Amino acid sequence: MARGSALRRESPRETPPAAQRLDRLIHERMRLGIVSALAVNESLTFNELKALLKTTDGNLSVHARKLEDAGYVDCAKSFDGRTPKTDYRLTAAGRRALEKYLAHMEALIKATREK
Hints:
By secondary structure, this protein is α+β, with helices and mostly antiparallel strands. The protein has helices at about 15-20, 25, 30-40, 45-55, 55-70, 90-115; strands at about 45, 75-80, 85-90.
């Protein structure tokens, strides 16, 4: 590498500061899918989310619970006759977290393209 080059190497163990600020909860692919789907739908049932995201019951359940525990998603359980029904909605905190995440990703993309 030439002296004075604009390229800078970072240690493989160093995490770039911009990446450190990413919401790791939303950054995971399945959770980002759940939050994104709920952002454009008032609510979705467990089965609707499962079909949309093409995932298993167990995988969806684990990731939805993490989002629920963080306060990003509300979960309402009811019965349709004798059939259990689970509805999910994005909370205000979840919408803010998604908007912040997307703004951060847009800033990273912009910064990368400017270099």
